[in-house]
Structure formats: C-alpha cells, structure tokens
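Appendix B. Extra example for self-study. Work through it before the problem class; the solution is given directly after the inputs so you can check yourself.
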Amino acid sequence: MWKTDIPVMLAFIVGTIIVLSYFLNILALQVAADQLVTWLVIIAGFALGLGVINLLQVHSKKIATKSSKWGLSVWLVLVMLISLGIGVTQGTQSKAYSFMFKNVYTALGATTFALHAFFLPAAAYRAFRVTSLESGVFLLAGALVMLGQVGIGAAMWSKFPLVKSWIMNVPNSSAMRGITITAALGLASTGLRIILGLDRGYLGSSNAE
Amino acid sequence: MSTSFEVWVAAFFTLAIFSYLFKDNIVFEFAEHTFIGFSAAHFFVEGYHNINGMAVDPLKEGDWPWIIPIILGLLLYTRYLPKSVSWLSRFPVAIMVSIASAAQIRGTLHAEFISQIAATSKLDIRQPNNLIFLIGVVTVCSYFLYLKRVRESSTLKVTSRVGRYFLMAAFGASLGTTVMGRYSLLIGRLQFLFGDWIKLIK
Amino acid sequence: MAGLFRKLDKMDDRILYVLIGLSVLLPLIKPMQLPLSPSSMSVDAFEAVDSMPAGSRIFLITEIGPTLSAELLPQLVAIHRHAMSKGLRIIYTPTSPVSSPFLVDIVDDWQQEYSYEYGKDVVILPFRAGDESLVVQIGQNFRGLYDEDYYEDDLEGMEIMQGISDIGDVDLVISLGGGELYRWVVRHIQAPKKLPTIIGCTAVMTTFVVPFYSSGQFVGIISGLGGSADYEFLANLPGAGVSGMDAQSLGHVVLLILILLGNISGLVLRRESV
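Solution. Structure tokens for the complete assembly:
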C-alpha cells in the first residue's frame, strides 16, 4: 500500500487541489495550491542535481573497470567536480566559474547545435524527394517560405515575402490551430488519467497500469 | 587575430566540436565530455542556489514548513539507494507529476482549447482567406479523429484527406523556418570564429 | 548524364559541408546588403513596445542559453536597446539554469550607452526551477516567488518593483524561448491576466506560435534571427540580426539548389532503373 497506493492518492489530492483552485474561488484552496506549487519549485531544484549522481554512477564504473577511453571519464568527473566545487563555494558570478561558463560551456553548447546547419542540408539533398502530391505540397510550401524569409528571395521577386506571409498565416496557422485544439484535448485527458490514478507510469515500469 | 586567452579557449572548443564534421575523433570526444561534465555541474549548482534561496534561508529564520519540500526533494535521491528504500522517491515524483498534469489541464483548456475555438468561430468567412482558414482547422481536426467507425465514413475520408494537405503545407512551412534556425546557429559560431577570433569580419 | 547524377548521389557528405560552410561564411566577410522586408508579426511586436509610454514596465521571461543564444541573443539585445532608448523598464526573469549569465552581460554591456540605473530601470530576478510550474506560480503569486534579485539584494527597496504585487501589474509581457515557454506563458499569464504578450522564439517554433498570434492572444512574434533583423531594422538599431541575414540568404539558396539537384538526380536514376 505504501509503495503504490499512497503515492497515487497523494497525486490525486494534490492534483485535485490545483485544478479546483483555478475554477473555485475558495481562499483555503488557493492558499493550498499556492503553497504546493512553491514546494514544487523547490523540489524541482533538487531534481536538477540528479544528473551529477547519474554521471558519477556511469563513469565511476567505466573508470573502475578501465573500459575503453576511461581517461575521458576521469576528465569528465574532474571537470564536473571542480566546476561544482567552485559553483557551490564561490557562486556562479565568481571569475573562475564565469570563465568556464562563457568560454567553454557556451562555445561547446552553441557549436554542438550549429552542427545541425550542416546535417540538415545534407539530409535534405538526399531525402527531400517529391514522390507524391503530399510531398510536393510539403516541399513547395517549404521552398516558398524559405524564399520569402530572406532578402535574396525579395530581390528575385518582391512578392515572395507576401507569399510566405500567406502560407504562415493561412494554411500553416489553420493546420497548427487544428493540432493545438486536438492536442489540448489529448493533454487534458492524459493529465486527468494521471490525477485519477489510471496512468501510473511515473511510479516505474513494474507499477504501470 | 585576437590576443585574448578567453577567446582562444572558446575558439579551441568551437573547432573541437566542428572537427566532428570530418570524422569522429578524440578531440571531439574530449570537448563532448567537457560539455557534459560542466553541464551536469552547472545544473547542480543552480539547483543548490535555488534551494538555498527559497527553502534553506527561510528555514534558518524559523519558517519550519519549508522542511517539507526539502525532505521531499531529498527523497528524490533515494532512487539511487537499495530497493528497500528506493520506492520513497515515488512521493516527490507523484507530487511533481500531478502538479504538472493539473497545471496543464487548467491552462490548456482555457488558453488553447476554448480560446482557439472562440477565435475560429469569430472568423468572417465571407473573406476567402478566412474561409480557407476555417476549412483548414475543421479538416485537420477531423484528421485526428481516431474512432474507427467515424473515421471510415466517406465524408470524413474526404475531410481528413484535405486536412493532410493543410498539414503538409504547415510542415513545409516548419521546414522553411527550421532551415533559418539551423543556419542562425552556424552564423553565430562563424561570427565568433571569423570575427572575435580571426577578426576577418568587421 | 545518368553517370553524373550517380556520382552526385554518392557524393561524400563532407563536400556538401564545405559548400554549406562557404555559402554562410562568404556573405559574413563580404556583405551583399540585400533588402529587408519586415513581416507583419515583427512589425506588430515592434509597435507594441514602441507605443508604450516612458516608465512602463516590461516583464521579460526567457530561457535563453548557449544552445539558443544564436537566435535569442540578438532578439534580447534589440529589445533591451529599444526599451532602454525609450525609457521603458524591464524585469528580467530566467526560467532556465543557463539564462542568468546572458542577462547579466546584456544589462552590463549597454549600461553606459543608455545610462540606465539597475534597480530603477532594470532588474534581474534569480533563477527558479520548476519549468511550467514556475510559470504557474508567476501567474498566481509572483511576489511570493521572489523577494531578492539575482545579486541577492532585497527587491522591496527597488524602485522598479514598487506597485507590483501581482504579475497583472506589469504593462507588457515578453517571452523569449525555444521550447514550450510560449505555451506556459499563454496558459498561465496571458489567458488569466489578459496582458498584452509578445513572443520571441527560435525560427523552428514559429509555426507553432502563429495560431496564437492570429487569434489575438499574442500581439506580435519575433521569429528567430530574421525576426531580430526585422526588429533592429524597425528600431534603427542594427546589430547581429541584420548582419546575419545575407549569410542566411546565400545559405537558403544553396539548400534550395541542393534539394532541386537531389530531386532531379532521384528522377533520372528512377527512370533509368525502370
């Protein structure tokens, strides 16, 4: 009972308070909801540290068994522990921490995602083929939006930006609105299933419905 | 060329990641491991300061209810302990998931379901664009009806087919904006390498 | 002919990478000064800020970070400069653990040029975790979440926070993000408080945000680097957005040519195999 029923009951009580506080103007409910969400903000702060434990688990095993490239695992753990030490003791505004954030982390994060700029056109060259009317509509809309959103398109034909604007605001917006409306129903029903205890996937696979 | 040590460090890591374009190599992996290590540490550090500011400091001033979220937060870490205690992590997870779900329910229904339908119902369909818009919304919604009996009706077959064309146009538009997004990332890095580092871009 | 297309079909990806890299790099080194035509979404976003009387307060919520900075940083800088030049005030609120350093840099970098005062014209709130739940709490008890700023100074004594007891007391909301932030903002801030809201987003997210713009829930959208360029152009404050648009142009053309080539070669090779 403690292992499954109590967490499910807890989810039901907490979820009900949050939902009802929005629809009913009862002060006690609103105070409770306010407190619960503030608590969540704190609990979420704890969740941010889980990655460190996970990485320590994985990489200490690699180091202990001297598996391939274990030296990189040593480096990862070192970087993590040193940064963590500086960040906790001296704060994120300290000189050493700022140096790491601005010149190492930002450069690495931004460049990793910049690789997509190479992979996307390469994939487009090989995979974006017109084989049906639907794929034709897809590529035509894509090409017109591309030409309409850059200066060279407007230089070629002054109406490209207008065409792009029309695609974005009429067919795109209507389709996305259709998706938004139907997805909203899906989201609400999934949320309701969780609160009512019908969906228990968050307890772990062995306790899922 | 820049003489700043900071710029050279950032340039080294930028080039280390770009080296993957040639092929996977040890310099790329070194950079990758640095990224993951710092990233995990940074999230931990921000979480630590978040907890301090919001719960530990008020607790020190005698505001005892803040002990509850602290205990719940610590319980998250029991998942790394033996099975006899690891189930305790379900309590904070249950609270997190249910609050997130409840927030979604109350927010989604108002802002995304009702407001979007209301906006559609106000369209002046005498204007061609609004009529196309309305057809798009209705046919796309019909495409997502999964009841088998309803879906197999001949009317719905037609509307969901029309809906598919609207969806394809929308995904095509997404492709166009994605291209711009991806190039922006590359432009940012090239502006750094050839501007801040090599100083070829003014 | 078919032989040539077979060769093209089996071309090493690295040749494509060089082509793409050059197409983006060359216009950065030698700009072509191509025309800019701001979209209606950008114009509406600009006008919403531009029409605010001096002293109005903007609540700017963002999840900017290293991976989003190429698109969101030019937007952030353009809005910051425009707002400061007009005497508007900004309350910066990070929702991601990686946002604060970017906000600190922006506030520091432009302080001399626009001579604004921290605490009076601009403030940075500390990072709080929680994602959507954080935005829920901003909507229902904003002041309960924050009693200190990023530098751990008391918010009570700051002029910019005077008279703000609820998020509904600000004049405009701007959300800059690359993921679900815009949804959280519409659900928990815009819809219940009916505040005018501008969305700055990565280009990828634009198609998802547009329905909320056409429904009137958002007053404007700044979309990716193109949106920043539009905003900079309209505010007459050229920056990273405008300078990147020529590179976008050539990059787009190369991609379109690649797709066209890919389709022709696919067609020729399919015909040959029949």
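Self-check: Chain B has eight helices and no strands. If your reasoning did not lead you there, revisit section 3.
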